[in-house]
Automatic annotation (TrEMBL):
Protein keywords: Glycosidase, Hydrolase, Signal
Name this protein carries in UniProt: Beta-galactosidase
EC number: 3.2.1.23
Domain Beta-galactosidase galactose-binding: 586-644
Signal peptide range in chain numbering: 1-19
InterPro entries: B-gal_1-like, BetaGal1-like_ABD1, BetaGal_gal-bd, Galactose-bd-like_sf, GH, Gly_Hdrlase_35_cat, Glyco_hydro_35_CS, Glycoside_Hdrlase_35
Catalysed reaction equations from the record: Hydrolysis of terminal non-reducing beta-D-galactose residues in beta-D-galactosides
Keyword match Oxidoreductase: no
Top-level lineage group: Bacteria
Root EC class: hydrolase
């Protein structure tokens, strides 16, 4: 609790208030903020390094929400709920790889219309903080960096390498053309623009950071709005002396974080750029949750001290399509550095255990955070409909000094929560016979050694490598792939031999005796490029290096690009199913269903293996039976009344495949080993 203190500067009040917090509260994190009615203390307005609060002239109570992870038709719903929780600001990344999918070709339309997202936020009474990168992290493929950068074999991302800086400037120029008119310096809602992202966690090149700041200014971002963000112990590595800094930290760390800031930059106001109120999930690991009770109290104390806070996340949304990233080099959810953990691909859901769920439903954290925010801002809560659930927190007294610092305004009323949209169930649907991946391959690119996806101009999906075995062997042979990114299914004459899985640090596989002229096929899935840590520069997808068979190089490869950006137009379905056996191995299949009304639903993939699903042409993400995610969020805007279609690509196709739509998500299934990998490992066919 914050002790009563005499009125003083906002910074002093913040330090005294946070000194009363325990060093570690139980994995708690705060949540969203209050409306634009709370003026900031004079110190925040006058300090030239005051950050977004100084620009706005009021305390910033913010939450993260990323427009590419929310269907555009639902932006307004999520923004209304942010305001209803008491937030006055929304923070969003801009992902470079979304906006410049090919060099020089920009897309700011439809789902990618960031300017419209900012305008809609402003219409709901919310200010906006934008984080353009160029590197974003965010559990997004390669941290938002476009894969085509790595077509340059000398590329060095996040450095002064001319090829990187030139491409970055082009991106920032294009983004600024969308956002510059919406900056607060021109009367718009954008009160902050972050330069780079947690650079202190990656490097310590201050010349690079100065050049990056200059690139933002050249593009048209106002110097007054710029700031950097880092962990409390890394400020000296990533900050610039003439820009405000934001602190990113976990629940329970507020006291140490504020003390670190006071030591690094005495007198600077507190701006928490990321307060982690949840965490993300990896395939094959347990679902992550964080208790919100202690978080709500820490949030209340931070806000009462005069600090500005951004909750990461307010609502996480979904990494639709191929956009989920991965961790590497021990960047684990428990913040340890286990040497054996090499690669952790992220699941499709970015629910994040946040105040607003993946499907936009308020969670207990929402109401606990709202009450904590309201207790500081003095805004009153709207009357709730009789059927709406609510919880109450006991009255919490504010220290006198904190109250003076914030200048709470009473009498304003928060907007009511929008009514919840209905969820629907879809009955179990058998997937049609479909077609084998092998039946309709594109024209290959020939090369001596395998090419990466980047080499052939591909960003996402799968890539198939084929070669012919010149010399047979009567004994089992060992196939070695020097580096595989990320999951390689190996076939000889169409028969699966096993899997080489980057997660398990596997590089080799024992094959059955080979005949001369046998066709070796290696189908590689890009499971998500690493988005954080020292592995970042080396994230090319596919096979890197030349495969070996019993120590001898395998040459003369065909490379088939399989980006699967859209589902095949018409997977083959036999007119007489008895005429041929069902498709096995990597297969496309489909099902159709009819709706009289639409609503959110959750596609249960528990009967499937590993692959990706499309509904009415929308890629709703990857699935994998290793868990913990078992359902894919299927939002109402992706559905239509009348006939709808699901297309599934499953690496382990076969009989009995079906899907259904559930009214609730399953994100916490018990993790399991990959059945293909584990079965063959037990048979001695996979060498760890």
């Amino acid at each position: 609790m914050t002790p009563a203190t005499p009125a003083r500067s906002a910074m002093t009040a913040a330090l005294i208030a946070l000194a009363a917090l325990p060093l570690a509260t139980a994995q708690a994190s705060p949540t969203r903020a209050s409306p634009a009615v709370v003026p900031a203390p004079d110190a925040l307005r006058s300090d030239p390094l005051g950050g977004p609060a100084a620009v706005a002239g009021r305390q910033v109570i913010s939450g993260s929400m990323f427009y590419p992870r929310i269907p555009r038709a639902l932006w307004r719903d999520r923004l209304k709920k942010a305001r209803a929780m008491g937030l006055n600001t929304i923070e969003t990344y801009a992902f470079w790889n979304v906006h410049e999918p090919r060099p020089g070709h920009f897309d700011f339309s439809g789902q990618n219309d960031i300017a419209e997202f900012v305008r809609e936020a402003a219409e709901e009474g919310l200010m906006v903080v934008v984080r353009p990168g160029p590197y974003a992290c965010a559990e997004w493929d390669w941290g938002g960096l476009p894969s085509w950068l790595n077509r340059d074999p000398k590329m060095q991302v996040r450095t002064l390498y001319p090829g990187f800086m030139k491409a970055t400037q082009r991106y920032l120029d294009a983004l600024a053309r969308q956002l510059a008119p919406l900056q607060a310096t021109r009367g718009g809602p954008i009160i902050g623009v972050q330069v780079e992202n947690e650079y202190g966690s990656y490097g310590e090149d201050h010349a690079y950071m100065r050049a990056m700041k200059d690139a933002f200014v050249r593009a048209g971002f106002a110097p007054r709005l710029l700031f950097t963000a880092d962990g409390p112990d890394l400020l000296a590595r990533g900050a610039l002396p003439d820009l405000p800094v934001a602190l990113n930290f976990a629940p329970g760390s507020a006291k140490g974080a504020v003390e670190a800031l006071a030591k690094f930059r005495p007198g600077a106001p507190v701006y928490v750029g990321e307060y982690w109120d949840g965490w993300f999930d990896h395939w094959g690991e347990r679902h992550e949750t964080r208790d919100g009770t202690a978080m709500a109290e820490e949030l209340r104390t931070l806000l009462a001290s005069g600090a500005s806070v951004n909750l990461y996340m307010f609502t996480g949304g979904t990494s639709f399509g191929w956009m989920a990233g991965a961790n590497s080099a021990g960047a684990n959810a428990d913040h340890t550095n286990r040497k054996e953990v090499n690669y952790q691909p992220d699941v499709t859901s970015y629910d994040y255990d946040s105040p607003l769920s993946e499907a936009g439903r308020p969670t207990p954290k929402f109401f606990a955070f709202r009450d904590a925010i309201q207790s500081v801002t003095g805004e009153t809560l709207p009357a709730l409909p009789p059927e709406s659930p609510t919880i109450a927190l006991p009255p919490m007294a504010l220290g006198e000094g904190a109250r003076d610092a914030i200048q709470s305004v009473t009498g304003e009323t928060l907007p009511a929560l929008p009514p919840e949209s209905p969820t629907i169930a879809l009955p179990p649907m058998a997937l049609g016979e479909g077609a084998s991946l092998w039946s309709d391959l594109p024209k290959p690119v020939r090369s001596s050694a395998p090419l990466t996806m980047e080499d052939i101009g591909q960003s996402f999906g799968y890539i198939l490598y084929r070669t012919t075995i010149a010399k047979g062997s009567e004994r089992p042979a060992t196939l070695t792939l020097p580096v595989v990114h990320d999951y390689a299914a190996v076939y000889v004459d169409g028969v699966l031999q096993g899997v080489i899985d980057r997660r398990l640090q596997q590089t080799s596989l024992t094959l059955a005796p080979l005949r001369a002229g046998a066709r070796l096929s290696i189908l590689v899935e890009n499971s998500g490029r690493v988005n954080y840590g020292p592995a970042l520069p080396d994230e090319r997808a596919g096979i890197i290096g030349t495969p070996l068979l019993d120590g001898v190089k395998l040459l003369n490869w065909e490379n088939f690009a399989l980006p699967m950006s859209v589902p095949p137009a018409a997977p083959v379905q036999s007119a007489s199913p008895a005429a041929k056996p069902p498709c096995t191995g990597p297969c496309f299949s489909r099902a159709q269903f009819t709706l009289s009304k639409v609503g959110d639903t959750f596609l249960d993939t528990g009967a499937l293996g590993k692959g990706v699903a499309w509904v009415n042409g929308h890629n709703v993400g990857r699935f994998w039976q290793v868990g913990p995610q078992r359902t894919l969020y299927l939002p109402a805007p992706f559905l239509k009344t009348g006939r709808n279609e699901i297309v599934v690509f499953d690496l382990t196709g076969g009989e009995g495949r079906h899907v259904e739509g559930l009214r609730d998500s399953i994100l916490d299934a018990e993790p399991a080993p990959d059945p293909v990998t584990s079965r063959l490992h037990l048979q001695g066919k996979i060498t760890p």
